[in-house]
Amino acid sequence: MVRITHYRYKCIGCAYCVEVAPDFWEMNEQDGKSDLISANTKNQIQVLLTDDLAWEQNRQAADVCPVSCIKVEKY
Ligand code: SF4
Question: 69: domain CATH number?
């Protein structure tokens, strides 16, 4: 299983995560930041628990994020 965490309050809206992992990320038209699709959101932190198939795309998203606000862990 994979846990993806988005520290959304740090997001600068560059959309790189959407480019490399469009199955998991989308841009929010209201505030211009990205959203982790289907995540639980609390205090501008989004968490998604999902299966191992999410690992590769989201590792890439974490790597390209210029402000390091995406964390991907196996658990
Ligand atoms: S790559 Fe990082 S800063 Fe850019 S939109 Fe995605 S989460 Fe936000």
Answer: 3.30.70.20
Number of domains in the chain: 1
pLDDT tens-digit series, residues 58-68: 999 999 999 99
pTM here?
A: 0.97
Question: Rounded to the nearest whole angstrom, what is the distance from the C-alpha of residue 52 to the centroid of ligand 1?
Answer: 21
Phi, psi values for residue 58, rounded to 5°: -80, -25
Separation CA 28–CA 25 (nearest Å): 10
Residue 34 is part of which domain span? 2-74
What is the rounded average pLDDT of the residues 50-61? Answer: 97
Q: Tokens 């959407």 identify what position?
A: 18
CB of residue 69 inside a 6 A radius of ligand 1: yes
Cα radius of gyration rounded to whole Å, the chain: 11
